[in-house]
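ugh ok fine here u go
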Amino acid sequence: MKENESNLRQQITDLSKTLKLPSIRKTLQDTIQEAVCHSWSYEQFLFTLLHSEDTHREENRKKAHVKRAGFPQYKYLQELNREELPDDVKIVLPELETLEFIKNAQNIVLAGNPGTGKTHIAIGLGINACKMGYNVLFTSIPQLLTQIRECRSARTLHQLELKFIKYDLVICDEFGYVSFNKDGAEALFNHLSLRTGRKATIITTNLAFDRWKEIFGDPILTAAMVDRLTHKAYLINMNGDSFRMKETQKWIKNKRI
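structure:
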């Protein structure tokens, strides 16, 4: 009898490999022992195995979403010291964490001096969105412009645009760190405009809106870009003391002790 049970378990293990059910294969022995110990019904036993497989696949889906997003590093909202955040974001962050802005196709503009947590917050929201099943893209503005130019040269710009529109959330980092010529300004305007009113976009920038003309050069184009990005958007003042500067000062102080 025991030999038959052993053969049957081996067959189940082999079938789980064939059917690509890795969680069932890994948990089979423990689940059988628990089922015997608690006198489970066949239905309870089967449900437990399938639930384990479904949970495993869901975790893999979340990891795949995060990986495809292209985050330069993983930063989580729970790692933030919220007491040190600028006042504006302290107030609105709990609302942003609900991710309702993605459902409502609303933009977020995080504007302020370097080191105040703009990118950290953007990535944290992006990772949370990935875990909720949203398709997310993280890109810097210089990286996006390079991709647009390359696709234009390769005559694949339309495919890039179609893909860009489909993302539930696009995070555009470092807006304002690098200026660009008229062609670059128009390309960026056209690309970001595709998402207006359709999908959510997060912009991080070190420049106030009245200085965006320094990037675009054209005041009319600047006004149009600001108008489209800020319509029903969360405009968050991120000016404050730099976290990195604070950490450096602490490090120097500890070195002297």
